[in-house]
TrEMBL record:
Specifically methylates the N3 position of the uracil ring of uridine 1498 (m3U1498) in 16S rRNA. Acts on the fully assembled 30S ribosomal subunit. It is found in: Cytoplasm. Keywords: Cytoplasm, Methyltransferase, rRNA processing, S-adenosyl-L-methionine, Transferase. This is Ribosomal RNA small subunit methyltransferase E. It comes from the Bacteria. It holds the Pfam family Methyltrans_RNA.
Amino acid sequence: MTAPVFVVERMPTGPEFVLDGPEGRHAVSVRRLQAGEDVVLTDGLGHWAEGVVHAAEGKDRLTVALRGGVQEEPEPAPRITVVQALPKGDRGELAVETMTETGVDAIVPWQAGRCITQWKGDRGAKALAKWRATAREAGKQSRRVRFPEVAEAATTKQVAALLADADFAGVLHEDRDHDSTPLATAGLPAVGSIVLVVGPEGGVSPQELAAFAEAGARPYRLGRSVLRTSTAGTAATALLLGRTGRWG
């Protein structure tokens, strides 16, 4: 089994590191790590270091002896961003969790016109914080050392600008009568950025499709079945990772 991952604010610089606070408590009181067990420390930004537990003290203090220096995982290519329309209830956290576990690089919450959920004021700030915390925890659970960026909620105009700058831009569209191409056969770049929009349960509106088309994003479909907005991004991410060779 691979070593558990713990997040640190700053990467260690010496031969030993003391993991304390919430991460230390999780390591000592929840994971119950003991001397001699392997761990990985990361800042979630691609920097990481391997270590072995030297001692566990109290309820929240773990002394780690480092093996080797700090390493850096290269940025992935192509970079995959999913623009996720806001789902209902806690299905947004589900989408973030599974996309993170699958390997997405960035997630942009989108306040689509047909979204039932509205991120406004304190409610929006709390929801965004939940998405970011979910990405962090899912990144640790899936042994990632470069966690996905979860951006501020975007408007349709902002999403269009993001699509215009991408090397590949697409919109998942479930309308069988619409002129959409299978994502499985789309021409994808080997480097650069891929940005894919996942619409809300009510679908992407004609006005939004037009704005995205003007930005250079074509409609694509995954298959015959219609996935929920909270699962479509994960399925699309898996497909793109396989087709670009990142799952090689």
